[in-house]
Amino acid sequence: MSGTLTLNTDPFALAKELSGKHLINGTLVAAVSGQTFDVVNPATGQVVAQAAKGDAADVDAAVAAAVAAQKEWKRRPARERGKLVAECGRRLTEHTEELARLVALETGKALRTESRVEAGVLADAFVFYGGLASELKGESVPFNPDMLTVTVREPIGVVGAIIPWNVPLMLMALKIAPALVAGNTVVVKSAEEAPLTVLRVCQILNDVLPPGCFNMLSGFGPDCGAPLVAHRNVGKITFTGSVETGKIVYKTAAERLIPVTLELGGKSPMIVMGDADLDRAVGGAISGMRFTRQGQSCTASSRIYVHADLHDAFVAKLTEKVNALKMGDPLDEATDIGTIISRDQYEKVKGYVEAGIKAGGTANACSALPTDPALAKGLFLQPVIFTDIARDAPPAREEIFGPVCCIFKFTDYEDVITEANNSEYGLAATIWTRDLRTAMNAAQRLEAGFVQVNQNLVVQPNLSYGGIKASGLGKEATLEAMLEHFTEKKTIIINMT
């Protein structure tokens, strides 16, 4: 634990410092090919750094380092591993502002409302999992009085982790921290849109962990992600991303017969009953739709069903509240809403808005675009609230991953439960009501892995998180997730006769 890193809260300078590098075996290195790609500030369109463009050769090097390091790492007592991971959390806490500003620069997420919060959860996840090391327990099995029969938990080996760009720090932490505590070593591939902050986190962790325990690669899916999933020395894959890519990952993992965890897409319903507290429900829609994140969330409450008694007032108040959010420079403390992550995503979201209008929906565009000339090329997009839209229109059925929600009027409870469940996805859902019986009934019947009543919290350590149906396989963020996804159970029988 050398503690040699110094804080650097200038994100532009830090981006240049990290430019063009992977981190393998504790050292910043260029890609084997020497190739790089641009990292763009989505608020201005300016290139702020280069990222190393990884391929199979880089994957080989990173996995080899992880294999070598795991031999000693797994032999360390579990509590000692836990202490080191908790120390990682403490170091990350010291770097919270630095990481928040860097992730705001490369993703366009507003510093005050999004990036600083995410950097805090990142550190908390490492502290949380560091404290669970003593829970890597087996069982005593009453098989035969003449035989001592026990189970033990052992690490899998090398874990390949592929993370998304929307909340790269938090979602990485929920994969990396439990894997390390359980005795595995890790190779993480960052999203090509957001490699810098992930690299900085890797650098901070490598100031604490033995070399090779945590390695980081940047690059594109076919060139870098696919070789990682297919690598013969990777024993477990954990992936967060699109359904389409998740299926490819799952197929490759199945061919190799290795375990895989998938956290995929969502089209989350939010039901507002006629007796709901209007102000709380509107606030829940703002947080649930992740408007301050430009709706770039797999749990976004993008299908909102409001009882006829509240519908008009709900739409009016939600529109008023979203209009009051300030869109602007993500690094400005006054900014509520930042940008879309990339040009491709920007065009995709605009396409959904156009499709919704074409399908007959009424598009209410909210929040004013920034007027600063320095932001003229930024990927700023007004949030859109659709009303009077067909329930089979593309914005109402498909995951948009942008600041677009559809509001539907309902009168019958049974109908709205059926409609809420009428989706290929099953990640998250919320119900807003003052009636306990209705709340309990809906919580039981809503087909989602993460159901909330009268609130819309984001994912937190110690809250089991993961979807059903096309939203994924496996849960994250808990002790059980660490045991089930990052260890293998071995049965040992000792004949005492």
Automatic annotation (TrEMBL):
Residues 33-492 form the Aldehyde dehydrogenase domain. PROSITE patterns: ALDEHYDE_DEHYDR_CYS (PS00070), ALDEHYDE_DEHYDR_GLU (PS00687). It comes from the Bacteria. One of its GO terms (molecular function) is oxidoreductase activity, acting on the aldehyde or oxo group of donors, NAD or NADP as acceptor. The active site is at 263. Keywords: Oxidoreductase. Pfam families: Aldedh. The keyword Oxidoreductase applies. Belongs to the aldehyde dehydrogenase family. This is Acyl-CoA reductase-like NAD-dependent aldehyde dehydrogenase. It comes from Novispirillum itersonii.
